[in-house]
Amino acid sequence: LKSKLPALGTTIFSQMSALAEQYQAINLSQGFPDFDGPEYLQGRLAYHVAQGANQYAPMTGVVALREAISEKTQACYDYAPDVNAEITVTAGATEALYAAITALVRSGDEVICFDPSYDSYAPAVELSGGVLKRIALQPPEFTINWEQFAALVSERTRLVILNTPHNPTATCWSADDFAALWQAIKERNIFVLSDEVYEHICFSHDGHASVLAHPQLRQRAVAVSSFGKTYHMTGWKVGYCIAPAEISAEIRKVHQYLTFSVNTPAQLALADMLRYAPEHYQQLPHFYQAKRDRFIKALAASRFKILPCQGTYFLLADYSAISDLDDVAFCRWLTQEAGVAAIPLSVFCDQPFAHRLIRLCFAKQDATLDAAAQRLVSL
Ligand code: PMP
Ligand code: GLN
Prior knowledge:
- This protein is of the alpha/beta class.
- The chain folds into two domains: 117 residues, Aspartate Aminotransferase, domain 1, CATH 3.90.1150.10; 239 residues, 3-Layer(aba) Sandwich (Aspartate Aminotransferase, domain 2).
- Helices cover 40% and strands 15% of the residues.
- It contains 13 helices and 13 strands.
- The chain has a seven-stranded mixed beta sheet, with helices on both faces. Strands 9-10-13-12 form a four-stranded antiparallel beta sheet. A two-stranded parallel sheet has the order 1-11.
- Helix 3 runs parallel beside helix 10.
- The structure holds 4'-deoxy-4'-aminopyridoxal-5'-phosphate and glutamine (GLN).
- 4'-deoxy-4'-aminopyridoxal-5'-phosphate binds next to helix 4.
- This is Pyridoxal phosphate-dependent aminotransferase.
- InterPro entries: Aminotransferase_I/II_large, Kynurenine-oxoglutarate_AT, PyrdxlP-dep_Trfase, PyrdxlP-dep_Trfase_major, PyrdxlP-dep_Trfase_small.
- GO terms for molecular function: transaminase activity.
- Keywords: Aminotransferase, Pyridoxal phosphate, Transferase.
- It holds the Pfam family Aminotran_1_2.
């Protein structure tokens, strides 16, 4: 068989979680909470199952959920996307990203992304015959050089993929970044794919800056989110994308033959949660900021150097004072010998700095974080 993706193996998330299991390590690698989502949400799922909401949902998503998403978007970003034409519910953010890239990128199109970037973008671009142009961001701030960005934009550029709050660097875009992006692309017919799955885990005083809050950019943008992150239910795999009607129509052509529709009772339960318990997502930054601060404080006595963390439930740690191993080898060693699993940064980019950094997930119970910190401090 001649592979269409010859350079690709199993994702690092599956690999590291399997290794953590094998060595009974504390798993701070793959990003998922070790606690459950709200009881109210679980109750609503059971309720809708019992009510018989167990057949196919509409292709674009259950109406009540699309309405609740529109209301929430209005409350957060002062913009209410059209319930029928502009919101599509997908099987997690992963499906929304894949469907959007497949719908927008044609063979030979150039796609700009930032290095490091989440691992699902590149294979989707490659399968569509697109050509990735990467802009390297440098630690510790990982800020964007907009002159460098402008130099990369050409008549071949079709799409820009960004992610804020950013996995894996834990940095966030500001409204100024979106303004700079608009200046750089406004003269050309370029689309924007804004991966905002951690929109409710942003620790900045100004809150999360969304592409949807930018009136011009949102006319060309696809904003992607995921209930897995917001409600501590990564296994439910329900996400969505918001895009202008013309773009949504193209994304739906892909979505209808990729999955067609998404789990009906989960969508109804999420609609109830969004509408009747908005305090959950409003309090989420505080919830995760407390975990971040607890973990960083506990690691202060270690030889790891922790990089600034403005959002997401990940942080980066520099281990150069502890080991000369490459990041991939260090993560294996850390799992097997120290009993803590982490993600090597070089899987998100092949920059030299990546080979001494690891990503740690702090979406864990306090007891798990304390136990992990104790092991890391002893190194
Ligand atoms: N984008 C980013 C940046 C992510 O971190 C993740 C999952 N951790 C996803 C997309 C995929 O989200 P989902 O699990 O809803 O498919
Ligand atoms: N997005 C999660 C992470 O960054 C993992 C998702 C997955 O395993 N595909 O850890």
